[in-house]
Amino acid sequence: MSQKIFLRDDEIPRQWYNLQADMPTPLRSPLGRDGKPIGPEDLASVFPMNLIEQEISTERWIDIPEEVLDAYSLWRPSPLYRATEFERALGCPVKIYYKNEGVSPAGSHKPNTAVAQAYYNKAFGIKRLTTETGAGQWGCALAMACARFGLECKVFMVRISFEQKPFRRLMMGVWGGNCVPSPSQETQAGRNVLARAPDTPGSLGIAISEAIEQAIEDPNTRYALGSVLNHVMLHQTVIGLEARKQMERVNAYPDIIIGCAGGGSNFAGLAFPFVLDKIHGKEIDFIPAEPKACPTLTRAPFAYDHGDEAGMTPLMPMHSLGHKFIPAPIHAGGLRYHGMAPLVSRLAMDGLLRPQSYHQRECYEAGILWARTEGFIPAPETSHAIAAVVAEARKAKEEGKEKTILFNWSGHGLLDLIGYDRFMRGELQDVELSEEELRDCVRCMDSHPRP
Amino acid sequence: MSQKIFLRDDEIPRQWYNLQADMPTPLRSPLGRDGKPIGPEDLASVFPMNLIEQEISTERWIDIPEEVLDAYSLWRPSPLYRATEFERALGCPVKIYYKNEGVSPAGSHKPNTAVAQAYYNKAFGIKRLTTETGAGQWGCALAMACARFGLECKVFMVRISFEQKPFRRLMMGVWGGNCVPSPSQETQAGRNVLARAPDTPGSLGIAISEAIEQAIEDPNTRYALGSVLNHVMLHQTVIGLEARKQMERVNAYPDIIIGCAGGGSNFAGLAFPFVLDKIHGKEIDFIPAEPKACPTLTRAPFAYDHGDEAGMTPLMPMHSLGHKFIPAPIHAGGLRYHGMAPLVSRLAMDGLLRPQSYHQRECYEAGILWARTEGFIPAPETSHAIAAVVAEARKAKEEGKEKTILFNWSGHGLLDLIGYDRFMRGELQDVELSEEELRDCVRCMDSHPRP
Q1: CA–CA min distance A412, chain B (Å)
Q2: Which pLDDT band holds residue B18 (cuts at 50, 70, 90)?
Q3: CA–CA distance, A125 with A118 (Å, rounded to integer)
Q4: Which fold has domain B66-107+231-445?
Q5: Complex ipTM
Q6: From CA A325, how far away is CA A295, in angstroms rounded?
Q7: What ranges do the domains of chain B cover?
């Protein structure tokens, strides 16, 4: 039996789906420093206006530009597989389908929005993009996209990941990107952190501050974010739109939809095109899977918070561990973000999602079982989704129910082998945020307005 | 314009093409130590009999077992692309098509034969496979295939590559394979080399000796080779068979077919299904691309030689730099083999191929241009094919001719980033075998019979 469900090239979606058209509870506006809702112009020094328009659009369908479709065609439509070997190893009454986003040149789902953002910036006349990156998946994707569209690319990489994952920065270099560890001496935000905490492992929040600072300083430079924002979620919906068609082709429909969740974009990309079905009464269990070391959806309050450490971004209504949060140095660098996409946070508040958290070691265990049965080696982030699949499969067995699971295999782990090695040597620890740590880290939001 | 040319799942070839049915000059038999042709039984302690039968078969079409097709379906059919962005960067009158074999779980074409060999060994009742690996592409492919079919896997990795490419051995570990540097203390062949040359960088020839020695010692163990042999070429023909269909779909036919050539398997896999057309009068320029540091087809004699350093294999009729040859430590570890597949060697002797050699730095330069235009980062081996594409494109421009080039993009370079980094830092040297070195290294074949 063949396990791969292809789409033809001409079946690639030609429009993104914008969940903002269908939100049960519409998003509240971001707030400025004065506590008042901000307008498009307030973001103009950070993002190009064509992307700001997408950020606030409530149009249901947004055309994908031809130039972006051309770039997508390098790896899209991505294959959907039935994981028959993994199913057999689990021995549970589940059918498991996965969408393989690891086939992109950067090895993850991130290029879906990277090429779109590079295209829109180029079209707006921008010459250079700055960004942050955790594990490096996003930095690689943006460097690749900038090479394709002829833009310069500067990446601030969370220091602990810069050290743990030296190869992703070399990848960025092959594509012509310039990657430095964050906090750096290149920005005021970086220097401030280094002055008070010279040994900090860094955080996505700090790296974002540095990237925004450099964008604001130069009129030819803008900032690109790899997750969290509405337009990023929008670009990622190509994943779920394709998956719907592929599932239909084999007459399957998911009972459970799973994605790992750091800032929320790969989860959203798969889940959003199915959300409307749930709103209309279909029973679907949406599970964003996150690390117990960074339990944003499972334990953090829904609040107004900054997206970055220095407080340069507007206040966004989202689940947040506080913008000063420094997560433990787990290997799933892409899941170590203090906040969560406002759209995903809002769905969770409305009871449409069932977030779950996992320890890093059970994720590696699931990832190794995956590699040995299905072949492809998952990224540690993706292994969080696989851990959720394992947990749900076992639950189905206990309850004696048959389930169809669809999950987003968000990226491969070929640049994350040090983590696998450390796990197999028994060197990894499980880290869980204590109640006291949680109280401490959310305190920085005390002065913010309540959403 | 879309650049990817898919095949549907049901268009994956169900038979391999065996060029032995159509060779203009049939292969001579391998010879034993006594100088006499060997029979199937002489190989029975090294390979399972079902693969030995394939090795000597002259049937034109050989069915691909269902279990192998199932495994293939994880990444096959592989996409064929038109490299429009790279074409634009070159500005030459060429259409460039490439077959992307980097989409497999191990990241190269090697799994095409790895899953087949693991399947046939499993079917024959074997419990454990031993092998050699250069850059690690083959070791990874076999470890992945063994995990899938429930076999143990032991890999002897050329020491210089073991050190240059630490991550491919970690990959093998994720799949449950056991990888050690070669020469090792685990075998007599390894100990002999270490005694006389403790600082040797190793060679594929030495690693093969070690792997064969361990296979012969245990009746439940056999040896698997990632290139050179007829059955390996056979398994790789799925590449060219798919490519033919994909080229037909866009009404294209190649004037030039290019593949890098170490032992010959990725070149053969793409080229063999087109060879009959050339025999029947079609003008096709077949270019195996090899390193100037290891110029097997371009400068070495056609001779009877061993496949391994210790002389444990039969004598095979092939182009060879001599089984004692220790190549310079260039980064394209997969192209550092002293010999060449007998089938490829024979075609070259019959004037059907036009082998070319390239320096490592021009290959990296071509590889970086590729990554920045087409997105995917090529392995250093694959970059040799890209360097050949660049050379042929420029030649077409000089001659004012329009050409269609098809080449095998044999694998990605995500585990080879150290080499890219060293190239970009200006640390790499070009190495060319001198006439004197060539005379020295082929001397070890003086006592062998002439083919």
Answers
A1: 9
A2: very high
A3: 11
A4: Rossmann fold (3.40.50)
A5: 0.94
A6: 11
A7: 66-107+231-445
